[in-house]
Amino acid sequence: MFDFFAGMFSTDLAIDLGTSNTLLFVRGKGIVINEPSVVAVQQLPGGRRELLAVGREAKDMLGRTPGDIQAIKPVKQGVIADFEATAEMLRTFIQKAHGRKALVKPRIIICVPVGITEVEKRAVRESAESASAREVHLIEEPMAAAIGAGMPITEPSGNMIVDVGGGTCEVAVISLGGIVYNRSIRVGGDKMDLAIMNHIKRRYSLLVGEQTAEQIKIKIGNAYPDDEIATMEVKGRDLVAGVPKTVEVNSDEIREAMSEPINNIVEAVRISLERTPPELASDIVDRGIILTGGGSLLHNFDTLLREETGLPVYLAEEPVTGTVTGAGIALEQLDLLQQVSIES
Ligand SMILES: Nc1ncnc2c1ncn2[C@@H]1O[C@H](COP(=O)(O)OP(=O)(O)OP(=O)(O)O)[C@@H](O)[C@H]1O
Ligand SMILES: [Mg+2]
Q1: Which end of the chain has a smaller Cβ tally under 10 Å, C or N?
Q2: 247 plus 268 within the same structural domain
Q3: Residue 102: its pLDDT value, please?
Q4: Are residues 32 and 94 in the same domain?
Q5: Which atom of ligand 1 approaches the CA of 167 most closely?
């Protein structure tokens, strides 16, 4: 009877605290928050800061803020870089997720990069505790992503997942509920945006912001050429004249501009395949590679990886929400949670 009520009023949460996006999954409800990991603060005299906005509202302020207002991305390369801002962001999202039920102290499971340090773990744990968590569990991101993608992670067979996020790319081979091999590089969608900004600056003497670069990548970017070349008009500030200017860019030059970060990711997958124990490698040859993370939505990225590895490559059904969904599934199955969480 007690369990029944505890379940009914449960506010247990899964959180994917990403470099680009933070997602919250409420047990029994599903995903309730999916917003950019951005916090806008106002600098006050005496070094204090006042929170102005979080999430989507704050992201719209990126690159558009007057002097005393700052839009911060508190998570860098998958780990907390600004503890205070992260805690504020989590508090706000958790309140939003719970609505009036905020009194109940939740059990929280948080996705973390593979191999984070003890100090980083403590920062994640404390930021959740300061947002009133009763019990905090940590799960490694590729594990959560693999569960979310429906991979048979508890079977004695090799499963390879490649998660291309905003700040990182993580390659992992999972078998029997554990990560057998992992390779993480600090390259993801953000580096592609940066490469586009640099290209436009060099080629056209035009300054564009990160947001514009990201839009170009999503709209016309690709990792492997199509039959047709797409074009797009881009507005920015002329470096020489200092005035607004518009230029036209095409998909070929954008792919070329992004080639370094994209090659880094392909290389990470190649090295991982070479270093995977042979039995598991042969499973991967049969089952293929699962691609997830927002960065894997780059047009034709799966095609490129298929060409480069000669293996079957499948895009996960929900590349952006898969990780938090996987953590949410673990939250609902205690035996699975015990098996896959890295600290109890
Ligand atoms: N359609 C798309 N084409 C290309 N890139 C995309 C697309 N949609 C989203 N992205 C990119 O995906 C990235 C964000 O992915 P995701 O939300 O998985 O990252 P994250 O989990 O926040 O980051 P990390 O896992 O590195 O901490 C961003 O760089 C974004 O520009
Ligand atoms: Mg991620």
Answers
A1: N
A2: no
A3: 54
A4: yes
A5: 26
152, 170 contact by CB (below 8 A): no
If you count them, how many residues does the chain have?
344
Q: Which residue among 16, 297, 317, 321 is best mutated to probe the pocket of ligand 1, counting the most ligand atoms within 8 A of its Cβ?
A: 297
What is the tens place of the pLDDT at every residue in 254-297? 999 999 999 999 999 999 999 999 999 999 999 999 999 999 99
**What is the residue range of 212's domain?**
189-259
pTM (predicted TM-score): 0.93
CA–CA dist 49, 313 (Å, integer): 46
Total domains in the chain come to 3
- Kindly tell me if the per-residue pLDDT of 59 is higher than 70: yes
Q: Whose CA is nearest to atom 9 of ligand 1?
A: 294
Candidate from 20, 255, 300 with most ligand 1 atoms within 8 A of CB, to mutate: 20
Distance 156 CA to ligand 1 centre (A): 31
Report which DSSP code applies to 1: -
What is the pLDDT of the chain when averaged over all its residues?
92
Whichever domain contains 243, its CATH number is 3.90.640.10
